[in-house]
Amino acid sequence: MQGKGTTNSTFNQLFEPIFSRNFRQLLQKLEVDKYVKKLTAFKFIILIVFAQLEQLTCLREISNSLCNKQFSKAIGLSSISFSQISRKLRNMMLKTAQSLFQDLVRQVGVQTGFKSISQELGRLHLIDSSTISLCLTRYRWASFRKTKSGIKIHLRLKLFEQGVLPDAAIITNAKTADKTQMDKLIIEEKDVINVFDRAYIDYKKFDEYCEKGILFVSRLKKSALVEVIKECPLTPGSKIKKDRTVILGKEGTTKMHHPLRCVETEDLEGNAIVIVTNVFKQSAEEIGDIYIYRWQIELFFKWIKQHLQVKHFYGYSQRAVEMQLYIALITYCLLKITQLKTGYEGPLLQIQRLLKTCLYEPFSCFIRKLYRKPERSSKGRRKIDHERIYQETLRQVIAGEADHLDDLTYDPVIL
Predict the structure, then answer these.
(1) Stated pTM of the model
(2) Which member of 40, 203, 254, 406 has the lowest number of beta carbons within 10 Å of its beta carbon?
């Protein structure tokens, strides 16, 4: 796939990260391609990533994509049946996709150093989940209601100066409660702040985190029992309504042993929210800012659902669905690495769109087009100055210059 004249192509630059030494060694160790002659692991992953970028809806479309001579030559595959792709999607070890995903996250970390969003706020990790509905008759293994099936993707995102990047993912049945996956997603490093929503509220876990020094910021439920220990002074003119030290839980059952900080502030829409945390060093305003950054993970879920193929699946088995979701995260990582290579600070969607038209061109051409300024810039919708038109028409009538007003082709807007 890296023949003469192709090493500097956009195609090669996009997929180069998957040919890392670590991933090659893993494939050899697992003997993934031991008896494979045609559709190797590398070619299969590239094929599904391409399908994600193009948002192809079925296996036949993926198979037919090889009719494009440029794509066929770049991937080194003249043809492949949709049934072969289906078998690969169903039978390939999930560990391969998971390991490649982690390797790409590592590569992004090497390139960026994961510089935090702010030296004052520290290293932020965002935790949340999103449910994807499925057809009950085709995905009975994922049933969670009488009329539908569904899966849930639990995700941890790293927040850094260049945006967000998925760091860890767990795929479960939609029935699975969010807080049951907390221990697998929480970062225990002392300089990391874990940010999550109220679906993860668990007082016993909070006590454990306080004992271990694990920092967290979450939103408090309205029904929470709160015992106020201390009221802290507020900064005049601040959005912070209350800053208190509290003990959560009911006496004799769920009451916590460790005090927490309770900050009442406003979200971006001006609605009141109550934040609970064991972070006492930062100001109340910074705690509010930290929680607001949690919305980045909501935007991430929205982005991949809109621009990658994660709502329509190519296979019906559990492994096929999980494989496709992990390859979607791999696709996002490849786009992010491409963005870092080009130094482009614009939207990631622009890179995805341009890749569709420049995939087989030299990478230098791709970069030039990415940074190319539009030849014509719109000034927006022109506002009509009705008062000026009226005054000019009035002057013409008074001066006896109104004969042209009888002409049906006359446009008073063009003076």
Answers:
(1) 0.84
(2) 406
